[in-house]
Amino acid sequence: MSATILPIVGLVIGAILQFLFTRHLDGKKHQRELRAKAYTDYLTCVSEYANLTAARNSPEAKNLATRTADAKCRVCLYGAQKTVEAFAAFERLGAAMKNDTQCAAFTELVSQMRADSSGQAGVAADDLQTVLLGVRRDAT
């Protein structure tokens, strides 16, 4: 009798473990997707601000400000600690890219977002800054 129950118990335990592991991995995957979406949305808003041609108090600008605030909140909710720290440093500097310090802070923010969402080795800060902000005129 115990010879027939043992395989069934093993099957039940295996099914339970598979369910728990799958559920855990799905939760991690969902968290990564939320994080990557928040990062992407914020960077999209930054890009739109840089290319905004409408007046700052226009409905288009107000909509963009609302979307930016939403993305910032989601970065704070889902972002990794180092990313949020880099984000805070950028915000403390005025969240603009008017000088080298601000540009470096923004580049560090994007670098942290990239490392957090992709898990890949970092890219040189100079290369990342060139791609994001172009070649600075005063650097030549």
Q: Mind explaining what this structure looks like?
A:
The protein is an all-alpha fold and 140 residues long. It has five helices and no strands. The longest helix has 49 residues, at 2-50. The relative contact order is 0.08.
Number of strands: 0
Percent in strands: under 5%
Largest sheet entry: none
Helix and strand pattern? HHHHH
Which outline best applies?
Answer: elongated
Low-confidence stretches: none
Q: Evaluate the radius of gyration.
A: 22 Å
Share of helical residues: over 70%
Q: End-to-end span in angstroms? A: 84 Å
**Helix count?**
5
Compute the average pLDDT: 86
- Label the structural class: mainly alpha
Keywords: Membrane, Transmembrane, Transmembrane helix
Protein name: Serine/threonine protein kinase
Transmembrane segments: 6-25
